[in-house]
Design a protein that fits this description.
The chain is 40% helix and 23% strand. With 457 residues, it is of the alpha+beta class.
């Protein structure tokens, strides 16, 4: 703790290397009675949800505990529930130009698998022959990051037998150069922003949320002969273990190598609607992980509504603001004129409250116009009843859910969900300028199954 609230404590931060949901922060008060009372009071009544832990010894880096949401104090011990810890990521300027090797861990495992033949040999070796050559590299403002799958190994013992575990990881690795006078805290914030964009685009490719949970910095000893720099770390605690969903991806590894992911990222960054695209992908990918069908449908349809607005933001309204003011004034005057004569004064007042909604174009019309303008393939979405009729049915189910908590046919809702997700993906890929030939050939298998079932009904 800093400032006047500085008190001696022993703090430990523990997490399982391969478990992104683990993070324990424990504090032991070791001061005199007054100091311990001050430290305990500070933790319990601090107006902030973070604390700084700094050591008197120069060789131990400062720790920032972030997102404090739980505190349990028993005697001289405190257990802190936190969302993240930053170790050694201080705002202190670096004294010389430095190169750091970085390793960024992502979840879930199982994405970005390089196609190939993996052979387990009786000697314990693992041989891998790739079918697809190439690397996934992404230039950032700080340096080039390589994105891919790697394996970590550790040993254990069971029934007297030595066991070697092979852990599949998804990570970004690379080197970054930091100039004299810069600080790791600011560099980490910039790097985290870059990585979050990559994760969001991978969420689109693999149809589920992709998140970072660890960034580690390793100083290059060859560039630090005079100054001793320590490793630094950001560790984020995720709420649960995320498993890869067993489904075909939207964009396969084959299309991400040799500049594919870099192109996708550049097209995203060059867009005038980055924030909207970021939100659409977030809602769409989250719809694959929700516990209930209804929640998934809400998220997917919300993503569709926003995706249709990205192409033409002006399509939200039928007339300009100036024209609408004049038209609304005339409508109000007319409604006032008939209110007394018809004995509908109370009803007319409620109708006038709904007038602003008349300016908005219908959601279905905006979606249809966006698909037409972007030349989105919609012929196979509702082939039996036609695109416009099918879309209206999907919208009706959304309205019934939202306004009446009503779902008369879970099977129909599930089928509409598949179609809505596919439509959102096609809109996004058109907005991002992604070539149709680079979409994974098996990406629409769920849609084909739904259509086959509908055709046989």
């Amino acid at each position: 703790m800093s400032g006047d609230n500085s008190c001696p404590v022993v703090a430990t931060m523990e997490f399982e290397t391969y478990d992104p949901s683990s993070l324990e922060v424990n504090v032991l008060f070791i001061g005199d009675e007054k100091e311990n009372r001050v430290a305990s009071h500070y933790l319990q009544y601090s107006p902030y949800n973070y604390i700084w832990l700094q050591s008197d010894e120069g060789n131990i880096p400062a720790v920032e505990v972030l997102g404090i949401h739980r505190l349990e104090i028993s005697g001289l011990r405190a257990s802190i529930g936190a969302t993240a810890v930053q170790i050694g990521l201080s705002k202190e300027p670096i004294e010389q130009d430095t190169i750091f090797h970085i390793k960024i861990e992502l979840t879930p495992s199982g994405i970005l698998v390089q196609p190939g033949i993996r052979e387990l040999v009786y000697t314990g070796e693992t041989r891998f022959r790739p079918i697809v050559e190439g690397r996934i590299e992404v230039p950032t403002t700080l340096g080039v990051l390589e994105v891919g799958q790697r394996y970590a190994h550790y040993k254990s013992e069971e029934y007297g037998n030595e066991i070697t575990h092979s852990v599949q990881r998804v990570s970004l690795t690379g080197k970054i150069s930091i100039s004299k006078g810069q600080d790791l805290f600011s560099i980490n914030e910039s790097l985290e922003e870059n990585v979050n964009k990559i994760c969001r685009l991978l969420s689109l490719c693999y149809r589920q949320p992709v998140k970072l949970y660890e960034i580690e910095y390793f100083p290059n000893p060859e560039t630090n002969q005079e100054t001793i720099l320590r490793r630094a770390l950001l560790r984020v605690r995720l709420s649960s273990h995320e498993k890869k969903i067993d489904q075909d991806e939207l964009i396969n590894y084959r299309s991400l190598v040799d500049g594919g992911l870099d192109k996708l990222l550049r097209d995203y960054q060059d867009s005038n609607h980055k924030e909207e695209i970021f939100r659409v992908i977030g809602f769409l990918s989250a719809s694959y992980k929700m516990a209930t069908l209804e929640s998934s449908y809400f998220l997917a349809y919300s993503a569709l509504d926003l995706a249709a607005s990205i192409y033409n933001p002006d399509s939200l309204y039928l007339v300009s603001s100036g024209k609408w003011k004049k038209l609304q004034k005339q409508l109000r005057e007319y409604l006032n004129s008939i209110a007394e004569n018809q004995g509908l004064a109370d009803v007319i007042e409620q109708i006038k409250e709904k007038l602003p909604e008349l300016r908005r174009a219908s959601g279905d019309r905006r979606i249809i116009d966006a698909c037409s303008s972007l030349n989105v393939n919609v012929s196979d979405l509702w082939p039996k009843e036609g695109f416009e009729v099918g879309l209206k049915a999907a919208t009706r189910m959304r309205n019934e859910l939202f306004h009446s908590a009503l779902c008369e046919s879970p099977n129909d809702l599930s089928d509409h969900l598949v179609r809505v997700r596919t439509l959102v993906e096609r809109l996004l890929l058109k907005i991002l300028g992604w070539p149709d030939a680079q979409i994974w050939v098996w990406y629409d298998q769920n849609l084909k199954r739904v259509n086959l079932r509908a055709g046989n009904a």
